[in-house]
Structure formats: C-alpha cells, structure tokens
Amino acid sequence: MPRANDAVEAMLIEYADLLSILFDDPYKPRAYEKAARAVGGYPVDLEGKDLPEILKIPSVGRSIGEKIEEFLGSGTMAELEALREKIPPGVRDMMSIQGLGPKKAMVIYQELGVGSVDELVAAIEEDRVAALPRFGAKTQENIARGIGQLQSAGGRVKIDVALGVAEVFVDALSSLPQSRRVAYAGSLRRMKETIGDVDLLVAGDEATPVMDAFVAQPSVARVLAHGDAKTSIVTELGLQIDLRVVPEAAWGAAMIYFTGSKAHNIRIREMAVRAGLKLNEYGLFDAKSGELLAAETEEDVYGRLGMGYIEPTLREDRGEVEAALAGEVPTLLTEKDLQGDLHTHTNLTDGLASLEDMVGRAAGLGYRYFAITDHAPNLYMQRMTDDKILAQRARVAKLQSKYPKMTLLHGTELNIDPDGNVDWDESFLAGFDLTVASVHSHFNQSRDAMTARMLRAIENPYVDIIGHLTTRQIGKRPPVDLDLQAVFEAAGRTGTALEINSHPDRLDLSDEHVLWARRHGVRFAVDTDAHAVPHLDHRRFGVGVAQRGWLTKDDVINAWSLRRLQRFLAEGRP
DNA sequence: GCCGTTTTCGGCCCGACTGTTTTCAGTCG
Prior knowledge:
The chain is an alpha/beta fold and 574 residues long. The strands form four sheets. Strands 11-12-13-14-15-16-17 form a seven-stranded parallel beta sheet. β5 (220-226) and β6 form a beta hairpin. The longest helix is centred in the N-terminal third of the chain and has 19 residues, at 4-22. The chain binds one DNA strand of 29 nucleotides through residues 25-32, 34-35, 58-64, 98-104, 134-136, 138-139, 142, 186, 197, 199, 224-230, 232, 242, 244, 257-258, 260, 262, 265-270, 272-274, 276, 278-282.
C-alpha cells in the first residue's frame, strides 16, 4: 500500500496540472510540483500529522500546507474538487500525449469541446484539430502519432531491455571517428527499474556526422527531431532514444545534466544561482562575467559547487544534495562488495542448470560463499522430497572439495503458506545452513491476512531471509497488499533479512521500500534467485536497487565475511 | 505559491527543437 505521502504527492501534481491548464501563471503550478516532489521524498510518513509537522517539509508553505492537512483529514481537497468541475479528467489525460501540453489541451477542449483521448482521436479523423489557431497539419499529425505511441507501448520498458538497446547504440557510435567519448546517461545510468527513454551522450567536435550515423541505425523506426545539438528517434520496439553531442571539454557538465534526475538538476542549478553562478549542460559559469569555472568532469562541477561526487543512483533529490554538502554521502554497495549469492536454484527443482554449472559460475564471479536454495516440498509442482534434498546436501558436501576458496552453503527456499507456516518441522529445518522464505500463491489475501501471514514467517526463528517480499512482477502482477510498516519493524526487530531480488522482472524490494525499511534497521540480501547460469549476472540490477536505497556494504548480509554472515544466521535460532 | 548572509518583494533552472509564425509560444527533458 502506498504511503500517505504518495497520495498527497499525486493530489498536488493533479492540482498543479489543472492549474497549468486553466491559468497562464507558470509559477504557481511549479510551486505545487516542487512541493509534491518534496512530499514524495520526505522521510516521515504524513499519516495523521498536523499542520506544524507538515510545514517542516521544504517548499511547503502555509497555503499548500493547509491543503495537505485538509486532504489528510478528509481524503480530498475543496479547491481541487472545484478545478475538477471545470475540466473533465480526460483533458488531463490528453497531456500524457507526447507533444501535447496544458495549453494545447485547453485549446482543443475549449474550441472543439473535446474532453478525452478517444474524442481527440475522432476529432483528428475529421481533420478538426489542424484547423485550430496556431495548430496545423504537422501538429495534428504529431498528436496522432503521440496517441499511437501512448496506446501501443505504454511508455516504459524494463531496465534490462533498455540496457541491451543502449549498449548496441553505444557500440555503434563508439566506432565513429568523430566520437571521442560515448556513454548512456538518464534514468538508465541512475538504474531506475523501468526506463522511459534512453539518453545517449557523445563527446566530439563534429556533431553532424554523429547525428547522421545515429538516425541511420538499422533499428531506427522514426526520427522525432534532428538538430545539430540534439536528435531524437524511436526504435522499432517503440523506445525513444535521445542523443546529444557536446564538446569533450564539457563532458562532465553534460553528463550531470543528461543523467538527471530532473529534480536533482533543479536543486543544483538553484544552488548555483544562489551562489551567483549558472549551470547548464556546457558547464558551470560565473553569472556576471560568464567565465567558465568547471565542466570537464562531474567531480569538477560538483566540487566547484562545494560538494563531493554524487553517485548517479543517488541523484533523485532525496537528500543527496544535503548529504554531499555535509560531506556525508555514504559509500554505496558495489558489485565487487558482494561475497556471495544466497538465493539460487538448480535443475533439482525448476532451475535449468546443474548444481555443478551453477557453482562453477559462482566461483568464476569470485564469490567467497554461495548458497543453493532449491524449492521445498509444499510447492507441490516442484516434487521435492526429504530424500532428494538430503541427497543434494551430500552432493554439495562432495563438490565443496573442488572449491577450497568458496564455501558452499546448503539452503532451501521455503513456501510461506496462507497462514504463514513454512515447509518441514524444526528439526529438519535446523539441518540447513540458511533458509529463504517466500510467498508463491494466494496473492489476493486481505491486507490483514497477508500481513499476519508475513509476520508469522518473519518471527519464525528458522527463517533467515524473506524472498521477493511483495511478489510483484513489473508490468505484469501488482504487489500484494501488506502493512509494510509492520513488516519492516518486525524484520528489523527479529533480524530477519529482506531480499532485494535482482531479477529485472521483479526488483522486489523496490528502491523506495529499501529506503523505508533501512530506517527500521533492516538488513538486506542482494540475491539473484537465479534459475539459470546467466541469471547470476542479474546482481548488477539488484545492486542498482540497493544503491538507490542508499545501502552500504554494512547493510547487506552477503557483502559480509563468511564468519559475520554465519553469526547473523545463527542469531535467534534456539 | 514559496522563499531570502545579497531580497519580506520580485524573482523563480536552462537550453534545444518544432511548427506556425514574421519574432515566438509550446513542449520536452
């Protein structure tokens, strides 16, 4: 369930959208958007908070504060309701069409009486949009295409898909003689779980040949814009890619700008303005003299603003600017810190690879320990038995002699049944080096039942790690309904680790859940849940989530030494 | 609407591209 903050954020953004449609003043909606972001990123849950508490949120003044208070108390806000009376919700929906903003949406509504995307489609078919003042055939065509894009792709792709596309383009552009440096930036570099469009950056003196080579790539389906500094295309998959070419001397400033996030950029630009400076994609300048102060590396630019380097995964305006100013940016978990993987499967159950192949790849990754955690009997389709899992334990023990530098741990992935019970009795569970417990069915239980179920599993002394807590599958299955506050408190109190499942379809916990859970002292396990050898490399995505959740290696049990991990696993057992 | 060791009023992040315009508004990132 979303926090109250998320509901408030959505309310403020809707209000800002309606203001931008109805009025000309651009600053008022911007103030609401800014406040909305501040609320969304605010670490304290606003549920039940009074006005003095609300006013502690930056960018929230009396006017917005009172609206938030009203909304928290009544679930709605009178002035928002009043604006909703004036504008059908479909007009706001139209703003999600590429190329159609608040002003054009309002003209379409006022002049044509068109108040929904469906009605807009009809109006375009009748050629009525092109005839509007300051519209035209081109504009109508672009809106039509924007609608097509909105309805087909729906926008975002999963991070592994975007990364694959980005790497192809980076390779192609890197081979050009005009390219000095090539990199992807944007939300992909920040490791967001889904990617709306891919941002590419090339350093070079000649933009035109790079832009021409870009639009000539085989997977380009359509060119949206083609300029000297900026070009945008859409691939056959419907993924938009933006390319910017900048002078090499401005690489650092450009990387900061194109990595974002937008909120982060706004924060540091405001800081620059206040210091009498100007920051853009070409560098940091003295506002008066125009003198260039920093541009070549990201470190230079942040340094000149009085901050240390900020990792891309932190750049969301969730406190990283304040931390950097105070010199308190945490040293984030990296792939290299991971000493092992604690959730993996073999072909004894539903994995594709043999025990030997999985362990072989784990050794190749340089792990100091590695856990095999095949499914337990209560997931009946896996056909697990006591004899089979004990035979596997013997095989693991035998295989150990081949890997003197890596300790093999024999574990299992238990099934949390609807009542919160898991497979096997305590004496049998005591025989495992570690256990992961996860929900695999009955996703639609009530919030109360699901929370009780999860708490019971967390309290079980033989459960070491909760796997994929919410069971969401990105774009396919929603998360289960849970009282996360209660779950995180219990996990922190009992020392039950929560998994960050690294599979790009899951990424469960999400970054926001990690931020929330770590405030309760929760420990995490960044695991792959690998069902095949290549899945072991998904850890890069799990590490991305961990970084976005501000985790250091001290927070992550499989970044610890074997001794420390074993002490952690032993704690709480009878 | 918010905010202030340059400001309690007058600013508000900045630049590129498109389309419909004869100098710029709208949109996007």
